[in-house]
């Protein structure tokens, strides 16, 4: 019998079109860049692939289009041994696409055409209920409709499943309290934590204040990812700071997604929060040393 704990990822899948340049262009400006790279992306799919490569038993719930990008994506999920029972194919919209520009420091700028991702409905979540009910962890992001994310969080929480939300991309309006009340672990970056808390984060103290405020919304564990500054976590009234592994960043795309996928795997294997964050940080630090989203995500054997 398979005793591995199941991880359900609900979210977006995109095809990323990436160009590296010395710097990011200003509005109205055309600049000449370097090589072009096309690879699989999307915050949901990146987290699903990260969790699968790092040793998790993963089911991915998403919507793709009935087109060449969608077909290639589905084939890739199979190669990664991700359960695709609840990958829906819609004839209504094209598969998601992201245009990404990466500068010489590895920072990026991303614009997403959501397409099929925007059709992931409450009906789709209801249809996937058998998978959600068998999960030990459900993780979601904000590249699919918020009503579906909220519905899935409520469904999972009701059954005592750990609900993780990576509130990315940064929300444009306050997240519904109904969603936050059903989240066990929130993993924002600094910008996202500022938006959710309404506080400006300038140092350790302000980060802690923002975390306390977010936690007061009913969230047990909050982890702010801070890039080269590491991660600051809060659980049971205690803060833990985990420094980042020092690496030369080439492209930070999907670093947060790799962290989230890694954290799910480590928690599903029974690691405590601190060890899970160390595992996730290691995986994420490897991903930033390589170009691209899913092409940059490491395998379990690369994590020492
Ligand atoms: O987090 C990185 C991802 O954001 C990219 O792969 C892109 O597709 C967007 O969803």
Automatic annotation (TrEMBL):
Its EC number is 2.7.1.15. Residues 5-298 form the Carbohydrate kinase PfkB domain. Substrate binds at residues 14-16, 42-46, 143, 257. It catalyses: D-ribose + ATP = D-ribose 5-phosphate + ADP + H(+). Pathway: Carbohydrate metabolism; D-ribose degradation; D-ribose 5-phosphate from beta-D-ribopyranose: step 2/2. The active site is at residue 257. It holds the Pfam family PfkB. Signal peptide: none annotated. It is found in: Cytoplasm. Activated by a monovalent cation that binds near, but not in, the active site. The most likely occupant of the site in vivo is potassium. Ion binding induces a conformational change that may alter substrate affinity. Its main location: cytoplasm. This is Ribokinase. It comes from Bacteroides xylanisolvens. The gene is rbsK.
């Amino acid at each position: 019998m398979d005793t591995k704990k199941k991880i359900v990822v609900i979210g977006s899948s995109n095809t990323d079109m990436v160009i590296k340049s010395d710097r990011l262009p200003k509005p109205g400006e055309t600049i000449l860049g370097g090589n072009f790279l096309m690879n699989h992306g999307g915050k949901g799919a990146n987290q699903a692939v990260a969790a699968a490569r790092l040793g998790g038993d993963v089911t991915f719930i998403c919507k793709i289009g009935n087109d060449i990008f969608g077909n290639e994506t589905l084939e890739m999920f199979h190669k990664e041994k991700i359960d695709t029972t609840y990958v829906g194919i819609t004839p209504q919209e094209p598969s998601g696409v992201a245009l990404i520009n990466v500068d010489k420091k590895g920072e990026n700028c991303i614009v997403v055409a959501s397409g099929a991702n925007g059709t992931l409905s409450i009906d789709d979540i209801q249809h996937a209920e058998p998978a959600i009910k068998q999960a030990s962890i459900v993780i979601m992001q904000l590249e699919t409709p918020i009503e579906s994310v909220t519905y899935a969080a409520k469904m999972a929480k009701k059954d005592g499943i750990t609900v993780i939300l990576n509130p990315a991309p940064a929300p444009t309006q306050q997240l519904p309290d109904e969603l936050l009340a059903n989240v066990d672990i929130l993993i924002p970056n600094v910008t996202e934590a500022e938006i959710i808390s309404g506080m400006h984060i300038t140092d350790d103290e302000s980060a802690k204040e923002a975390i306390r405020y977010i936690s007061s919304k009913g969230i047990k564990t909050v982890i702010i990812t801070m890039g080269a500054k590491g991660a600051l976590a809060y659980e049971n009234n205690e803060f833990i700071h985990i420094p980042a592994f020092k690496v030369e960043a080439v492209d930070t795309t999907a670093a947060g997604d790799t962290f989230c996928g890694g954290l799910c795997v480590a928690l599903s294997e029974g690691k405590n929060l601190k060890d899970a964050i160390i595992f996730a940080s290691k995986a994420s630090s490897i991903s930033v040393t390589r170009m691209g989203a899913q092409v940059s995500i490491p395998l379990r054997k690369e994590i020492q």
